Amino acid sequence: MHCAMRPYFTVHMLVVNALLMQLSHGTPDLTTRTNVCSTIQGTPGVPGNNGLHGRDGRDGREGPKGEKGDTGSLGQRGVQGPPGKMGPEGPQGKPGLLGTKGQKGEVGRAAAPCDMSRVEALEAGLSTLQNNFNKLEKVLQLLQVKKVGQTHYATDGRVMNFESACKKCQTIGGLLAMPKTEEENKVIHDFVSFYQNPAFLGISDEKKEGSFEYITKGSVTYTKWSRGEPNDHKGKEDCVEIVSSGFWNDKNCGEQRLVVCQF
Ligand code: MMA
Ligand code: CA
Ligand code: CA
């Protein structure tokens, strides 16, 4: 504790008072002292009172450095850092969806003159072919070939059993005649009349008795049965013939009948 704040004059006055008190208790003055050299010695004076308490000492020197303190508490979270560097390129993606249809293109240029000559030549060839075909169809009429719609019916007047007649027509690229309209039935009837022989049709119930189907599969859609037919006479009639009346009768498949094919 420093004492510099204590007023200095107060200490000074205390010293002066102490000196004055010594004087009042019989201390020899200057006049008396000059008489020391005299041979007569006086008696010793009474001891003085103790002095006042001394002034406070000076402040001590700075002490040694203290021990290291404890670790402080965790600080507040810092602000977000800047974005990182761009990563490496990823793998190729899947193909995109089909785009919308584009606009119609411009009209193309006209074909070169040489191309036109080729087309004209082809057209001329086609015209000649058509004329020859028309003539042939007329000749075929004389050879017992008749046409109904887009179907041609033909016969050479020969007769065969059902299986042979069926194979014969297939071999030449056709089928045993299967009339499905009155008109078609009539042209076959005409052949029957001309050759005076009934003809086999491409129809039978061999697969299931009583159920007549085309040789090309499927139940018949048109029929022209004679009265009382089909009767499966003696249980041995699974094929169909067209007779002189133009009507149909179920007949034994082993019989010999006119072969009429359709193309
Ligand atoms: C009769 C009749 C037909 C049968 C033939 C067999 C003449 O007609 O019964 O249904 O197919 O005989 O020859
Ligand atoms: Ca039958
Ligand atoms: Ca019959």
Put simply, the count of helices is 5
Q: How would you write the strand order of the largest sheet? A: 1-2-10-4
Q: Largest sheet at a glance?
A: 4 strands, antiparallel
Radius of gyration: 75 Å
Uncertain regions spanning at least 5 consecutive residues: 1-40
**Average of the residue pLDDT scores:** 80
Q: Indicate the proportion of strand residues.
A: 5-15%
Question: What is the chain-wise order of helices and strands?
Answer: HHHEEEHEHEEEEEE
Report on the architecture of this protein.
- A hairpin with a 5-residue loop joins strand 7 and strand 8.
- Helix content is 29%, strand content 12%.
- It has helices at 8-24, 30-33, 113-142, 162-171, 182-195, and strands spanning 145-148, 151-154, 159-160, 175-176, 199-204, 213-214, 239-242, 248-251, 257-258, 261-262.
- A four-stranded antiparallel β-sheet has the order 1-2-10-4, sandwiched between helices. Strands 6-5-7-8 form a four-stranded antiparallel β-sheet. Strands 3-9 form a two-stranded antiparallel sheet.
- It has 263 residues and is α+β, with helices and mostly antiparallel strands.
- It is built from five helices and ten strands, in the order αααβββαβαββββββ.
- The two termini are 142 Å apart.
What's the short story on this structure?
The protein has helices at about 10-25, 30-35, 115-140, 160-170, 180-195; strands at about 145-150, 150-155, 160, 175, 200-205, 215, 240, 250, 255-260, 260.
